[in-house]
Specification:
3 domains, 44% helix, globular, alpha/beta
């Protein structure tokens, strides 16, 4: 039986200390490391245990102990990194802060983002100094990522429904993630492909000859990773109904079938609804609008695209379909399930954080 550890000294904040820490958390130009340390101290001051703060902020318990102890010993001064031995610094803290604030809160007049050269010209510092500061604070103005927040009024209910199926599937039932990958092209390159050689990657012409398209309907079995697939030249409700019929034949009759799918109009036509009424073991669960990331079959489509389609060369739709069927058969010989780990609460907390960032961005 493990013994409890020594009782930790209590951590309390003055109004002035709390105001400074909360300011560091809210300010957009604050380094992420300093913001995290401030959150740790604020959480500890609320009376949360080290384990609870570690879980809430996604850091190891030792990190919580370190900055809790540093604050108790040195107050706000303990939140900054300790000086290291070596040549005296030529760049002051004010210079670093000026670069960070300028990077986060301003834009160059003749570009959409800063480069090391333009920032160096604007601040009078060297490009290498700018580069070191950006690396130290994990800033990369050249990078840009995309996101999309769902506007579905039932977003929370649908997230809990779908994630519940992933983490706690019903007994005597099969959970299938369903979608269609439409407009799969059969591109033939206009010139021969040059094979890879030592020091030279494979090369192919940037243009291609269109040979037609096909659509893959797929149902990914969450538990095993196996996929039921069907290829069609079109992706109307008629083709989707044929695919559902195939799923019905391949799933043992004693099992309930729970389908996770998106809000595409093809999935909700009167013909599909009529078919479902005649198949009471089928239960549909829709992902929120604009949230295809919640459907695990999209992860399988990414595997197919990366390993077969992106660099594939097909001079006819028939050749493309043969390759897709062969790849699907090979996948099912040794399927690999995709394990969902995030709880609904973790997802919703992250979405709430994004919403807060958007409301605070000023754009």
């Amino acid at each position: 039986m493990s013994r409890p550890g020594p009782k930790l000294p209590s951590l309390s904040l003055t109004d002035a200390q709390r105001a400074v820490l909360e300011g560091w958390v809210r300010r957009r130009s604050t380094a992420q490391a300093l913001a995290l340390r401030s959150r740790i101290v604020l959480e500890c001051a609320e009376g949360h245990s080290i384990a609870e703060v570690s879980r809430r902020l996604g850091v190891v318990p030792e990190t919580v102990r370190t900055w809790r102890r540093r604050f108790l010993e040195r107050g706000l001064d303990g939140m900054c990194d300790e000086p290291r031995p070596g040549v005296p610094r030529k760049i002051s803290d004010a210079d670093v802060e000026r670069v960070i604030v300028k990077t986060l809160e301003e834009r160059p007049t003749n570009a959409t983002h800063w480069s090391t050269r333009s920032m160096a010209q604007a601040t009078g510092m060297s490009q290498s100094a700018i580069s070191r500061i950006w690396r130290a604070f994990a800033l990369a103005p050249r990078r840009s990522e995309t996101f999309k927040l769902s506007t579905d009024p039932l977003f929370i209910d649908k997230v809990r429904d779908v994630v519940g199926l992933y983490l706690d599937p019903p007994e005597k039932a099969l959970v299938l993630c369903v979608d269609e990958k439409s407009q799969i092209q059969a591109p033939g390159r206009s010139q021969p492909v040059l094979p890879m050689m030592p020091g030279v990657p494979e090369r192919h012409s940037h243009d291609y000859v269109r040979a037609g398209t096909t659509t893959l309907f797929a149902a990914l079995e969450v538990a095993t990773g196996k996929v039921i697939g069907s290829l069609h030249r079109r992706h109307r409700a008629a083709e989707f109904k044929k695919f559902l019929t195939k799923v019905d034949k391949e799933v043992p009759s004693e099992l309930e079938v729970h389908l996770i799918l998106d809000n595409y109009a093809t999935h909700k036509t009167p013909a599909i609804k009529q078919w479902l009424l005649a198949q009471p073991r089928f239960h549909l669960h829709f992902t929120p609008t604009g949230s295809s990331w919640l459907n695990l079959v999209e992860r399988w489509f990414a595997e197919l695209t990366q390993k077969k389609l992106r660099r594939g060369i097909h001079r006819s739709v028939q050749a493309l379909e043969r390759d897709v069927r062969a790849w699907l058969a090979d996948w099912n010989d040794n399927p690999c399930p995709f394990i969902w780990t995030k709880t609904a609460d973790e997802i919703l907390d992250k979405v709430a954080t994004y919403c807060q960032r958007i409301s605070d961005s000023g754009h």
